[in-house]
């Protein structure tokens, strides 16, 4: 017979404030450092992430799905996509199933840039996280997943 799990004690307000401030500062510092790295390719995170994610999600991803994955509103993404399209990195095409929707496709130049972005960011991440055990990173990811669930209105207790 298994005993019911006793929930861990709630974190103090001071600990929660320290956590949220640390999360915010760390995210800002990471973005700034990543932007400095991406500047070598003439990009910022705003322009690099759509290219990177299009490679991950595959050619033919809809603009709306990419915006959702990036966590931005559609109109915000449109300006970035306009810039990337004008630079020759992507093409917009009419969705065969819904003419109102557009699908996104990396051009050969966009695919080459995606590979450069992926290599540069992989090297950068290895530097940033050097000396941190994978088990520690897994704990962080678990905490982030629970926080995300809570922020989406879900039950963070069930996200174990």
TrEMBL record:
Keyword hit for Transcription: yes
GO molecular function annotation: DNA binding; DNA-binding transcription factor activity
Protein name per UniProt: Transcriptional regulator, MarR family
Q: What keywords sit in the KW lines?
A: DNA-binding, Transcription, Transcription regulation
Q: Which residues form the HTH marR-type domain?
A: 16-149
Pfam families annotated for this entry? MarR_2
**Which InterPro entries does UniProt cross-reference here?**
HTH_MarR-typ (IPR000835), MarR/SlyA-like (IPR039422), Tscrpt_reg_MarR-type_CS (IPR023187), WH-like_DNA-bd_sf (IPR036388), WH_DNA-bd_sf (IPR036390)
List the residue ranges forming a coiled coil, or say none: none
Q: Membrane-crossing residues?
A: none
Transcription is among the record's keywords: yes
PROSITE patterns membership: HTH_MARR_1, HTH_MARR_2
GO BP, one annotated term: response to stress
């Amino acid at each position: 017979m298994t005993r019911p799990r006793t929930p861990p004690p709630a974190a103090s307000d001071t600990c929660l404030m320290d956590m949220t401030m640390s999360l915010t500062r760390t995210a800002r510092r990471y973005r700034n450092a990543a932007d400095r790295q991406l500047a070598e390719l003439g990009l910022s995170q705003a322009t690099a992430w759509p290219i990177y994610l299009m490679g991950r999600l595959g050619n033919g991803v809809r603009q709306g799905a990419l915006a959702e994955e990036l966590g931005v509103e559609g109109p915000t993404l449109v300006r970035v996509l306009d810039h990337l399209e004008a630079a020759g990195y992507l093409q917009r095409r009419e969705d065969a199933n819904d003419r109102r929707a557009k699908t996104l496709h990396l051009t050969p130049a966009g695919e080459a840039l995606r590979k450069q972005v992926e290599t540069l960011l992989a090297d950068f991440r290895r530097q940033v996280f050097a000396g941190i055990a994978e088990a520690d990173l897994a704990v962080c990811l678990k905490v982030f997943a629970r926080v995300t669930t809570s922020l989406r209105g879900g039950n963070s207790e069930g996200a174990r």
